[in-house]
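lol so apparently i was supposed to do this last week
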Amino acid sequence: MSCPPPTSPELHQGGTVAGPVRTCLGCGAKLGKEALVRFAMASGELMIDERARQPGRGVYCCRKMSCFEGLLKQRKKLAWALRCQVRDRKGYDLVDRLGLEALFCRMISVDS
Ligand SMILES: [Zn+2]
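anyway here it is w/ zinc ion bound
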């Protein structure tokens, strides 16, 4: 199997990009939506948006454990990207790290 060389999205005047490209919050890579896992806030908690159907803002992450770790470490970026707090008023973490990690592992392992 041979892969075509990666094509960089072409920026046209007006800022339109060929194809939906999202940025991984973990490593900063710009990739097509299909290559990334979407995270979104649902019921006040950070969730993995498996079908990319959650309304509202989402953040994206490569299908790599290192990027997932990077994403969770960058709470400020996360909060900014989602336009919401990732901690509640008492300082309680709204990110269920272990739950997310388990789901993330499953998602990247089923992906061939
Ligand atoms: Zn990444």
